[in-house]
Amino acid sequence: MAPGQLSTFLKRGAIWGFIVLELIFFSIAGEFMSLSEKAFMNWDNMLLLLKQSAPLGIIAMGMTLIMVNGNIDLSVGATFALAAIVLLDSMTWPFMAAMGDWAIPFAWMFALLTGVALGAINGFIVWKTGVDAFIVTLGAMLGFRGLVFMYNGEQPTSHLNWTLVDFAEAQFLGLHTATWFLLLVTAAMWWLMNRTVHGRNAYAIGDNREAAVNAGIRVGPHIMINFMIIGFLAALSAVVFYSESGSVNPNDGTLYELWVITAVVLGGTKLTGGSGSIISTFGGVLAIQILRKGLGHIGADTETVNLVIGLILIAVLFLDRQLNVRGKEALRV
Amino acid sequence: MSEAMQSRPAARTGGLTGAKVGTFLARQGILIAFVLFMVGFTVANERFLEPDNILGVIRSSAILGVMALGVTFVVISGNLDLSVGSLMSFSTIVVLDLHDKLGPALAIPAMFAMTLAIGAVIGFLVGYLRLNSLIVTLGMLSAIHGLTLTYSGGQNMDIADKEGTWFSVFGQGEALGIPVPILIFAALAALLGIVLAKTPFGRKVYAVGGNGTAATFSGIRRARVVFSCYLVSAFCVATAGLIQASRSMGSQNTVGQGMELEVLAAVILGGASLMGGSGTIFKTVIGVLILGFIQNGLLLIGLEFYVQYVVTWIIIILAVWLDVAAKRGRLLSPIA
């Protein structure tokens, strides 16, 4: 096997190898250190793990697209919160309340439209002003959070609809509703990235923007559509999560962007754009969730999770650079 | 982005044309905006310009400001530091904890040493190992947060004897009628401003951020410069943590959470480019003050604190847009 092939193989499979290592570690460590009698690799536990990865995972799929494009979105946490508020609050509007359970699809639609609209704002600004997406979405992170607060002050927004809760807690073919949403989004984004012109353009633009412009790709509208997609997915994530919980605090979703970016980077997507894969991002999301759950299983506190994930992120970056010849050039934002 | 860089010299040459006036306005836009805001708020509420109010604003901006000074070095060197909020929580918690164990005279240097050690780790990873600063400091944000919680066991830290210690001087003291946090902020800004503008090290920071390869070929040790920038940043964070701890004499573990982005917003508002190579300490101070006065002015005219988030958003985008537009010589992006 040539050295190039070996490193490619290592990079592609690294995240899955890491997941297997995590599972083995927590299964063995769980035998000795666990507070509960149950094994870590318990079927129900694994199902729950998939369900709990959904909110992060759904946004991570959009972030992969954005980062393959060579951009970044720091405003997803605030978009998530605003969509959640619209979802829950819209069901209390008089004309919606009058519709009974038929209000649910409308509430979903309003929430998703909110996400798309916020994404469109970001995308439009990036397109027309030419300001770096990092700065645009950094500003939007503050601005959207301000909108969240302006909606309902510092009060939590709550509305519990039992039909919605039943739907969110339902299991179909053994998998939870949230898991199905995660799988559907993963499949749809995989198709978009690998089987459509839009997906091919996303890689082309991320790889070499000038060349993409010269090749006749309309880069501006393309970027705007991508931001609308991630806005939609952030809202969808909120829809999936808050259908069940029924109450949102104005600070919900803070630091989500950091977790999502961590998952995407663990999956091997480059910040510089042009490379990354949806399937690997799925692996990255699972890896983070297993780590969180596993550390909880062996009785570690939440603080350890932060510490470990931070260190793993840096270790992954280091290993990736050692394996990646191109990465030896200075990477810059 | 690269087009903007290329057209920069073109925008600088030429006579006093309309374009040049436009460029001047865009370049100094942040100062003009600052003056406009001050005038507007003064008209809206006469209390705005009272000395007490002005001192109060600067005092409450001092913690953010001190951190922004250090981040300015990092940003000019072409890197990012998203770990400052987390690190500030860490230094605040550590100095409060050590205060009761060692006494203030030992606690302060010990806290500075620990904070600088973490800064050195980040500087090593970004400078010598050349890892991407965004991801490294993102990871450190999470890791330091975990470290802080482990250190404190998740508990709030409080100084037991709040009256019988001189530790409160850094956050609550006054000298010559001026609050000490302002004096610290001003002194540090003056010192770092001179270091950045007048010393060989400062010029190296600009060189590394402007064109790292060229800097390396002209004999500048890039890794060492970047490493030093993170040390400067960590020193500023430790100072901010000291002010914070001394002001409140007790703290939660999450006191600095989210500040990394506010700090970055202030630095960007001051006109430092995330591409590196541009920005000054003076402009960062202006950026910090703008954020502080907007917050205060909006509160004074009776708006809720969160309105400032939306206003800050709009100002950041407009400020950077004008800057980018001035560099490329046209308002809208040429990308179709």
TrEMBL record, chain A:
CDD domains (UniProt xref): TM_PBP1_transp_AraH_like (cd06579)
Q: Where would you find the membrane-spanning parts of this chain?
A: 15-35, 56-86, 106-127, 134-152, 172-193, 223-243, 303-319
**Keywords, in A-Z order:** Cell inner membrane, Cell membrane, Membrane, Transmembrane, Transmembrane helix, Transport
- GO molecular function annotations of the record: transmembrane transporter activity
Q: How does it sit in the membrane?
A: Multi-pass membrane protein
Recorded hits in Pfam families, A to Z, give: BPD_transp_2 (PF02653)
- Localisation: Cell membrane
Does the record carry Oxidoreductase as a key word? no
Q: State the GO CC annotations.
A: plasma membrane
Described function: Part of the ABC transporter complex LsrABCD involved in autoinducer 2 (AI-2) import. Probably responsible for the translocation of the substrate across the membrane.
Q: How does it assemble?
A: The complex is composed of two ATP-binding proteins (LsrA), two transmembrane proteins (LsrC and LsrD) and a solute-binding protein (LsrB).
Name of protein: Autoinducer 2 import system permease protein LsrD
Natural source organism:
Rhodosalinus halophilus
